[in-house]
Amino acid sequence: MTDITLKSPFLREAKARGMIFQCTDFEALDELMLAGPITAYIGFDPTADSLHVGNAMSIMMLRLLQKHGHNPIALIGGGTAKIGDPSFRDEARSLMTDETITHNLAGLRASLGQFLNFDDDKCRLVNNADWLDKLSYIGLLQDVGVQFSVSRMLSFESVKQRLDREQGLTFLEFNYSILQAFDFRELHRRHGAILQMGGSDQWGNIVSGIDLARRTDGARLFGLTTPLVTTSSGAKMGKSANGAVWVRKERRPVFDYWQFWRNTEDADVSRFLKMFTDLPVEECERLGALAGAEINEAKKILATEATAICHGREAAEEAAETARKVFEQGSVQAALPEVTLSSGLPAEGMPAFKLFAEAGLAASGGEARRLIRGGGARLNDVVIKDENQIITSADLTDGTLKLSSGKKKHILVRVG
Fold it and tell me: At which positions is L-tyrosine bound (predicted)?
């Protein structure tokens, strides 16, 4: 971002935490935020029934707004979900049914409620289906379509990339930017929103909304984007070997969520502490500067603080204690994530590869076989050497089996 001296507490802290990538007008926005509370929003489309760590930067921006006394709006895309955001995607999203959207919206509300305090009347949860579902096509074309230049829309990098691929861009998806611009203007009219925030890939969509409100309402609106977050090794934030790192415990156990943050690369500790915890910036820098074995203690703090924001302090500390027992004491009785075998354990037992697949530690029997052949599978802390090893009730401890995939993935399988 531009090297500029910021005065408003929100922008100063967001900059210090490395959470700002680009802004349409830093100086004017800074003055407005310094003068008093503003209303700002970020949109979240219900592509799944849970948010994931890839959404964490946006959520933390809303938390920071709320902390500094501004008015955050979490906009859930019940309307735009029927199109799907094409920004920087290789191909079109599959269209979702109304039933799927309704289901996902409920999960999205629950996810956002884990991070934001909606009991505060300054913080709103809004669904764009409230206005988009009521639009008439001709009315939209006359009101909004006339304000958009096709040549300018084609110049957006996200659009150009899709057009350069064989998949192309459907007319349905091409309308997404128009509807997102409509959202910005509508939130300005209904709630006085003057700032839209989002990931750096949303820049073109945000600017479209600013232009629309200026042309039709004479309003001055602003855009602020966050950087694309990747790990030091280049991996996309929010992904793990087992897929997306979901924030709802129904999708990813609290212990696994804690463990994801504990596995942060050394070079990312300071940066992630600033971005994804509420710890003071100076403390984040101190912890991130630790070296050797001490950096592992900083990672535990990162894991506990990030998990506390998502799942609550008690659950975070319980996860930290579970990790201590598992990794430092080797305790099988620690409160590891549990799964129950739906079919039970047959009297004649079950091959190890099949058990790992059914327990969810492998996506298929073939993957489980490869895990075992590579020496990465353990039963009750003992390496399984034969993929066809029969697991029986004799291996149970208090009705459970401890299964481990590698050094960091552990679950308890309850039988009967």
Answer: 41, 176, 180
